[in-house]
Structures are given as C-alpha cells and as structure tokens.
Design goal:
The complex is a heterodimer of chains A (361) and B (326). By secondary structure, chain A is of the alpha/beta class. Chain A has helices spanning 37-62, 76-83, 99-105, 109-116, 142-154, 173-184, 204-207, 216-220, 232-247, 277-283, 288-298, 304-326, 349-360, and strands at residues 15-17, 91-93, 161-166, 189-195, 198-199, 202-203, 224-228, 253-258. Chain A has 13 helices and eight strands. The longest helix of chain A is centred in the first third of the chain and has 26 residues, at 37-62. The model of chain A has no long low-confidence stretch (mean pLDDT 96). Chain B folds into two domains: 3-183, 3-Layer(aba) Sandwich (Rossmann fold); 197-324, Rossmann fold (3-Layer(aba) Sandwich), CATH 3.40.50. In chain B, helix 9 (244-254) packs across helix 10 (269-280). Chain B is globular. The chains are: A alpha/beta (361), B alpha/beta (326).
Amino acid sequence: MAEEELPVIARFEVRRRSYLALDGTLQRPLPSFASDTGLLLSLYRGMVLTRAFDLKAVSLQRTGRLGTYATSLGQEAVSVGVASAMREEDVVLPSYRDNGTLLWRGMKMEEILLFWGGDERGNRSSGPAHDFPYCIPVGSQAPHAAGVAYAFKFKKQPRVAVCLFGDGATSKGDVWEAMNFAGVHKLPVVFVANNNQWAISVPLRLQTASETLAQKAIAAGFPGEQVDGNDVIAVRAAAGEAIAAARSGEGPRLIEAVTYRLSDHTTADDAARYRPPEEVQARWKEEPIARLRSYLVSHKAWGKSDEEQLAAECQERVEAAVERYLAAEPRAPETMFDHLYAELPRVYAGQRQQLSGASDA
Amino acid sequence: MPEVTLVEAINLALARAMGEDPNVVVLGEDVGVNGGVFRATVGLQQRFGPERVIDTPLAELLISGLCVGMAAQGLRPVGEIQFMGFLYPCIDQLVNHASRLRNRTQGRLSCPMVLRTPHGGGIRAPEHHSESTEAMLAHIPGLRVVMPSSPERAYGLLLAAIRDPDPVVFLEPTRIYRAVKSQVEDSGEASPLDVAFVLREGRDITLISWGAMVRETLATADELAADGVGAEVIDLATLKPYDEETVLASVTKTGRCIIVHEAARTGGFGAEIAALIAERGLTSLLAPVVRVTGYDTVMPLPRLEQHYIPSVGRIVAAARKVCQFG
C-alpha cells in the first residue's frame, strides 16, 4: 500500500508562548494578571535579587569563601516566574540551579550559601518544610515529584508538585519514567524544563533530535508548551495555568522554558573551552531582566531612581546574608551522625564517640 | 496457628500493615490484579483497592523514586522489584536519595519506605533472576538491609521494616519462598531490626549466615552434632546495621567461626564480619575465620547453580577443618 493511503491516526501540535519582545514591547496582549503592576514589580525585584545573590556567590567562591556554585545568570525569569505561580502548600523539587525559586519560596540567602559552602544545615531551609532540597544528580528528582503528586491525589489534597530540571535532564530515563507515570495517573505535577541550551559543554543538538522539549509530554499523554524563558510574564502565565490545571485535577503539564545559560556551568567550569564568547555576547540581548525593565519603564512603572534604590537594597540584603553565613557556628564533627537514621543504631555509637574526640583535639 | 510458607507470611504482613495504617501503599510491576509474580501481594488489590496497590509501568527506577516522593509526603510505600537482577536501576535512588534524604535535610524530610525484592538462586530461573548482591546495599550509609530466613521471621521483620521511620531494602530468599512452612500467628507483632538471632546455641564453633543459606547452615550444625561438635548458628537477619555484639559474643565463646553466604566471595558481607572479628575478637580465636561462599564468578545459569551455591557438604567440610585446627 502506498504511503499516502495510510490513514493519519494522530496529529499533535506544540505552541510557543511569549509576550514581551526583546525591547520590552508587546507581541500580543498580556494575560490579565499583568495588569497588576505590583505583581510585575515583585517579579522584577525577585529576578534582580536573584542576580545580585548569584553574582555575590560567585565572588565568594572566587575568594575561597564558598564551594562550587551554579549561578542562574540569564535564567532568573524561569526560577522566579515558576515560583511566583506556586502556593505555599505546593511542593517544589528544584535542580541545583534554581536559586531564584528557592529564594522566592523563603529559603534564606545564608542558608543557600551554607549549603554550597559545605554544610548540610543550609538544607534545613526557612522555606516550606515540605519542599525538596537542591537535587544534584540530574533529573533524579523527577520520580520524587511524581511520588509527591501521587500522595496529594491519594490524600485528596489540592496541592501541586513542581519539578524543575534542565535540558540535559530530558535525556534521562528518570524524567521520562516520571512523566509517563504522571500521565497514566493524571497526577497534579508540573514539569519545567529549563532549556538553557547547554548541559555543561554539550549543546542541545547533541542532546536530542527532538524539535522541542515540550513535545516530550505528548508521548506521556499530556500537554507540553514552549515558552520564551526570558519573558517572565510568559513563564508566569504558563506556570500559573499549568499549576491551576494540575490543582483542578486535569493532570500534569510540561513547560519548556527556552532561555540561555549566560554563565559557566558552575564556578568549576570554563565555558570558553566549548562555546565562543561571541555567542554568549549575542545572547545578552535576550536576557530577562532588561526586557521586563524596558516594559516597566515604558509604562512609567519604573525609573532610574527605583533602579538605584533596588540595587542598593539588594546589595545590602546580600551583604547582610553573607555576614550571617560567614558567622555560622562551626558544626561539631560527630553531628555527621545526627539525622543519619531517626535514631542512631547502637552499633554506630562508638564511631560517633570517636568523632566527638576529634572535636576536642 | 496456621502453617504458612515464607511468601504467604510476606503477604500476611503486607495485609496486616495495610490494615493498620491507611498510609501504607504497595507498588510494583504486576503486584495488583496478578498479585505479584511470586504471589506475595495476592488479594491485596481486591481488599485495599487500586489506589493502594498500584500496578506501575515497567520501570524500576521509577518504582524506587516514587517511593522516595511518597514517603517524603507521609505515605509508607512498599515497592516491589520483581527480581534482584532488576534492582540496579534503583541504586541511584537508594544511594543518592532514599538513604540520605533525612541526613541532607537535617531531619526536615525523611524517607520511610521499603523496597522488597527476591534474593538469590536455586529456583532454576533465567539469567539475571538469581542475584545475591546484598553487600553492595549493605555498604550504603543510612539504609537498612534486612533478610529473613523463615516464614515467622519474614512476617515479623517485614512489619518492622514497614513501621520503621527510615528506608529498608527487604531481601526475600527466593529459594525458600515455598520450601518450608512454619506456624505464623498474624498477631501484628514485629521482630526487632538491627538484631541477629541465635538460632541454635553451641560451644565449639560459630556458624553465621542469613537468608536462604540459614537452612544449609542449620543442616550443617546437625551434621556437626553427630560428630560431637556443638555449633552455634547465628542468623544475621539485619545486614545494615548489623549486630556486631552478638557476633563477637559468640566468637568469644567458641573461638571458631565460619561465615556462609551465597554471594560471591570478594567484597562479600562475610569479609566485613571477618574484619570485625579480626579487629575485636582476634585473641579469642582458636582457628582462622573461614568463609564458605559463592565463587567469584557471574552467577551461573541453572545447570551449574547447585555448584555455585554453598552446599551442606562444603560447609561441613570447612567446619571440620576449622575444628581440627590447632
């Protein structure tokens, strides 16, 4: 039988959402929440604070006062846009780059620094106690998100799990297995793929031949949407709709937020080894903070003195957090046994004792 | 009291745990309508519904990862991996997440989950169905690794594992799933974790084993008794964290020790016990500590597996040699 005689049994489409052009002008009418200037300003402030914090963290690392750190430079709209659409009772399952998400959720800057400074106490977090900590093994938190969402559905709680990961993670079975299960059970979970184009040195074209990452949801039986990840209004709108749909029982969604990693992968990386600086330079035109600022300025909602005041305020908050971080009491060595189990098995008492001797030495 | 097989005891414990705690859920491949490939979960879905007995997609990593997420949200998931050879995709979840979620959040989140899987050979199963890689799991800090050796112990230890606030890998000795029956009262009473059980007392030699190998080890003790040698038999039961004191107390008494396990010798859990005795029991020893184990080969397909799994003959021969020493 000739191919043209075969019936088409399914067709799929993937849509892309964006509102703000590079210069902050509108490509299409904004969603209704964007009429709330206060909300847009809070998104702006959240992104600026995230960038100020990231920059400071890098400088702490460069001066030997912090361990390896992954900045979210250029991707602040993804972190902040998604977090701002969540409720306190929802659960976030972040990757290691979602600093802005965790800040928005209430984790303190000194806690983030404490974690990357090599101390588990940072993960105690002042954010919601049910949020997951940074996940470093790529994509491995996606099955947790499905499990968390299953628990919500099982307990009939109107809550949503929000799982963030990068483009590299979409190559892993973990993410597929989680999405597949979430689709089967119509779970209240939103997957967010932060497509920053680079998984350390591996560009997206070597990661997948898929035209979009959003379409990976289609195989799992739920909608996927691509958004301009440098347009915080678009990210917020997509996340808001997806979270609301998940909360009302419509099942999971995948959001592919297309952005660009303007920084090295981490402070331990040198991106000049694998991508030309001109490429990075060109991408600075797309970054999310200037774009929203242009929009706000053109609508007389923001001005030079606001900007100066915000910069000073962020600087002050970050510096104060750094001081608290640097002043953290050292941990007694034997506390590495604390929280290993709910109750330390007797057989390890001797090892713990050995360490408490070490703290006296 | 009814006489039940080990796999029936597992089923009794699961039903008991689900009956007493509405947060206990069972998940895995074929665990629902089919009742599990070994029938360990038979009848549970009919009784507790498909929300609590979940037929998952065919994805082992997913099963273990779901357990972590569910447990962090207050459920008590009991995942089933059909055979130990299919457990390996779960290692990432066990090492990087389940075992350390409590520690890395400093107690903010915890992971009360159980991952059950059949362990060991001897049932003439296909390739990858007869693994005994418990030492790999016992090396993971923050985890519990538990293996019963009889129906009553399976019942009590599984209840304890499900009630435990931390993650437990529960290894079920496939070879004796149905080979033995014993009286098990469905009393809801758990057996203690982290405790080794002295199954038989003796003054002359200590025989340490776990899981299915306990049967051959007890048979060895019978043969030695005929020689006039009193063997003390210890069922380790919990491999992580294991009961060092019971091991040392026994070896201090007998001065001789044989460790029996089905797993390959090098880096096996027997090596850990031998090292413990070398560090803390050396002066009691009257003879070298000897391991009777599987060989350092890949687990052979069924035509050769009886040569791989330690036999009563191999254990008895080793014990006689140890008893003649010095």
